[in-house]
Write a structure and sequence with these properties.
Rossmann fold, 54% helix, 6% strand, globular
């Protein structure tokens, strides 16, 4: 690996020095942190470890220190009740972002915003109730990301004030699919998917309590969404929210897997000397299959109606009507204000507003025929003949 190796002790010390804080709280996170650092040093081939993964990990440690301090400064935040409306899960690129934005747009529901996931804690000297400095900084980061990875906008929408995945907060637990998506660290990815994620989701709830406490005002039900639930976190999600409705989005994997590999490539190719696109296909094929198989076993143990299946084809053809059906399935009413909110949401989020995402399956050692064979059981169970025959 080029550059200096990362050190757990140095990262911890730097986080303490940067914040002036010392209390990390429960130290359960040290095992996944150590494993992440070990696999990053061994396999990621980072050109500048301190500038990439090192900064991300140190920032996560700084936020862990800040989280503990926030509850010391605001003990009443522990009384915040996080009430989820549902969790959207499924493989990446299956229409989950559209469903997330539609559900979160209605007046009685809410979700995390991207700037909140980046900066969940107030800046020093920030005026209470005025997160404008954090929002401004988030806009700067988005601009920087799109400068460094100019093709990313064509792959996935990223906006400072749009709703975002809670996996960004889970990055602070070091059990997150973000890390093996950004770096070629397959051993870490497989390892994290097999761990007990309950402590990570307990920490996620603490971050959400802090965010909800800062928002003040009327409390709304939360719409959660991230493919990480399926790719590792399901046991943690259900340990913390056992009765949460699960909205599972489905799409032909041949339309999903190469696209996700392309996203990973855009994040890795300029930062790693060991990234090999021809290995990505096999890796994410296994990760996707493992996640689907684990969920299928788990699904058999859940209560009837807890999982709501949504096909990508329906979301694309009739987004508002499909989202209305989901709302009713999770036990919520649907009125004219909700209808108008969803219409406004779709008008503001047209796919044509973003550049076209260009990639091929063959770039990543894949073929549509092989993908169809690998995921035949999943396709037969959840998708119609018309979709499977594409």
């Amino acid at each position: 690996m080029s550059g200096a190796a990362l050190s757990v002790d140095t990262l911890l010390a730097n986080a303490r020095a940067a914040t002036g804080l010392d209390d990390f709280g429960d130290d359960w996170f040290r095992e996944p942190l150590a494993r992440l650092v070990e696999e990053t040093n061994a396999d990621a081939g980072l050109i500048a470890p301190d500038a990439g993964a090192g900064q991300r990990i140190q920032g996560a440690l700084m936020d862990r220190l800040g989280l503990v301090q926030y509850f010391k400064d605001h003990p009443e935040a522990t009384d915040e009740v996080i009430e989820p409306a549902c969790a959207i899960l499924g493989l990446p690129r299956t229409g989950s972002t559209v469903m997330h934005r539609l559900l979160a747009s209605v007046p009685e529901l809410t979700s995390l915003y991207w700037w909140e996931t980046c900066f969940p804690l107030p800046f020093p000297n920030e005026m209470p109730g005025d997160p404008a400095p954090r929002i401004a900084m988030a806009h700067q980061i988005v601009d920087q990301l799109l400068t460094e990875w100019p093709d990313f906008e064509s792959i996935d929408p990223i906006e400072a004030e749009a709703v975002a995945e809670e996996v960004i907060l889970l990055d602070r637990t070091f059990l997150s699919t973000t890390f093996d998506s950004m770096m070629p660290i397959p051993a870490y990815g497989h390892w994290q998917a097999e761990q007990d994620h309950e402590p990570a989701y307990r920490d996620l709830m603490k971050f959400m309590q802090v965010i909800q406490h800062q928002r003040g005002g009327a409390r709304k039900k939360w719409v959660l969404k991230t493919p990480h639930h399926l790719l590792g976190g399901m046991n943690g999600l259900l340990a913390v929210f056992p009765d949460i409705p699960l909205v599972m989005t489905h799409r032909v994997v041949g339309d999903v897997l190469p696209s996700y590999c392309s996203m990973c490539a855009s994040l890795s190719v300029g930062a790693s000397t060991t990234y090999d696109p021809m290995k990505q296909g096999d890796y994410w094929t296994q990760r996707f299959r493992d996640g689907l198989e684990r969920f299928e076993h788990l699904r058999a143990t859940l209560s009837a109606g807890q999982v709501i299946d949504v096909r990508y084809q329906d979301t694309v053809a009739e987004p508002n009507q499909t989202a209305e059906k989901v709302m009713r399935a999770i036990g919520l009413d649907f009125d004219q204000a909700d209808h108008q909110a969803m219409a406004d949401c779709m008008a503001a989020n047209t796919r044509e507003a973003r550049p076209k995402h260009k990639y091929t399956a063959e770039q990543f050692g894949l073929t549509r025929e092989k993908i169809a064979i690998d995921f035949a059981a999943y396709h037969d169970r959840y998708l119609g003949e018309e979709e499977r025959g594409k």
